[in-house]
Amino acid sequence: MPKETILVVDDERLVRWSLQQKLEQWGYHVSLAEDGNAALSRIQLDNPDLITLDVKLPDITGIDVLAELRKRNIQIGNRDHRLRGRG
Prior knowledge:
Largest sheet: 3 strands, parallel
CATH class: Alpha Beta
Structural class: alpha/beta
Number of helices: 3
Strand order of the largest sheet: 2-1-3
Helix content: 25-40%
Radius of gyration: 13 Å
Strand content: 15-25%
């Protein structure tokens, strides 16, 4: 069974690393981006199931990233596919 992919977008390296460690421990595949433009590129390459997105990024805001995804008609995840819950 393929692993779900989560894209972690944050300009703070420690935040990216911390989330990556925990998410991988839980069995997810994790890709990382340090700014909004890198996130848009990773989304095209990795087609993530979920994105954790910082709002304050050094180049464009997280809100701008979301607006660009909407403009490009890019959907994240699948309605029939739900990530496993964690307690």
